[in-house]
Fold this protein.
Amino acid sequence: MSSTPPALEPLQDPSVAPGGTDEVREVLLDGGRRRAHVRADLTPLLARQLNVAAVTAALEAHGVDHFLVRGMDDRAPVVGVSEEDRVAALGALEKLGATGPCYVSQVLPKPPIVSALRDAADPAVWADLQTVRALKLTWFRADPAGKLILGTAYGCEVEFWRPDRRAGVLRAPRRNRMVPAVSMTGVPVEAGEHRYTRLASAAKPGRRFRTRPEFDHSLPDDIDFPIDVVYTWVDGADPEWQRRRAEVKGEAFHAEAASDSRYINRDELKYSLRSLHLNAPWVRNIYIVTDRQRPSWLDLSAGNIFLVNHDEIFTDRSALPTYNSCAIESQLHNIDGLAEHFLYLNDDMFFGRPLAPQTFFLANGNTKFFLSQNRIPIGPITDLDSPVDAMIKNNRRLIEERFGRTLTQGSQHVPYPLRRSILAEIEREFPAEHAATVHSRFRSPTDLTITYSLHHYYAFLTGRALPGHVNYGYVQLAVPDLVARLKRAEARRDWDTFCINDAFSTYEQLQQQMAILEPFLEAYFPVPSPYESAGRP
């Protein structure tokens, strides 16, 4: 397996040049109708890149000195310009605004109410902006279906820095993440995109931008190590997989059962990968762990996504075949080429909006974990315990024996931040219990649940993890108001991550849910990822 990401394609933005040929259409937003540029490959990071490319190209074309600033928002790029170049800069930006659908708004001084967007092609608008200390240019961008619309949050801000000749510096008009001033005589440098937004990764090749030396430094909270993603995936509707499973379990396999209620493939993995592509572009490699299966739509040509079979990660092949997710999860640290830091996802987990890697990891390498509010009953395993509660009680016993602490909570169903070295350490520290889980071919009350619970508590109690927080959504399909809940999620898009889970539905309900769920996922994640074969469902 190669861990080298694909080469970066040149950034192109037809809307920057006069007479640009990209498609423009009206979109309806809370603030009214806006003209939007349509991109089939739209992502939040791309919108940011296109906007800053448009502004910097316009300034360069008019000979205006400028530098990228490390702003406070990962989504909105910030460009600094000296007050002495204000007239030339505003002239360049006015010409840029006239080349295509573009909107401008005042940022600083802050207006008494939210600053209204105004058509950047209107000369009168620029007459009103002659004394502002910061403004924003916004290009609305939409996917062809008009479901993903990115606007002011990704607009490029231009701020004017005040010369202080006595001190020999340009002073910032507001706070940024680095410095209050830069040297007036400093030689401009180029720095990678990760210096300006945490949506870009220092571990992946990226574009370089003109800045000042003061901004080309690593901060204590910057993450510069690679982060991978691991999925475990099974197509339970595959008759061959069902046959293998029945043979191991000692059950008769009936062909008519292949379409029965227990096995429906909703292609959640496709949409989870779309959410990853849209909202976590800093991920390096993606590994899909599976039992000799492959989704029909999966395209591996992107160069950073790999299928991994069970026999490639199980060090003890006698434990195979296995149909126990806990056993499979216990072997993830054996994936060849996997980064030390990775996120583990089930295929029903989704990134709901753009997130920085700091959501899941600390820059010193420690992981975060996200506790559920549900409590695990105190006492030994009983017949009343759910399978998950029983396994957490097994984890509890190990934690009590080793650290004298009693765990009472499980984890939220969000991407699990993990470290290979800690998973390997757990295997060494609890060899008997770990081996019993590995050799349990089907879920058992004696199993450990390592990725869901044990890793987090063990890492925390050894000083390598801290509790974190995400705005998390959990959608249970077997609820009467499913349609209303999904509509709310699509409209607000305010979940950092969310999980769509089913545990109680009948076959008839599952069929009805599929008719609801697929349009929701297609609307929430309308942009295909690089991991989908063209023309395949």
User: Anything to note?
Assistant: Residues 44-61 form the longest helix (18 residues). Confidence is low (pLDDT under 50) at residues 1-10, 14-21, 256-262. The longest strand covers residues 156-164. The radius of gyration is 26 Å.
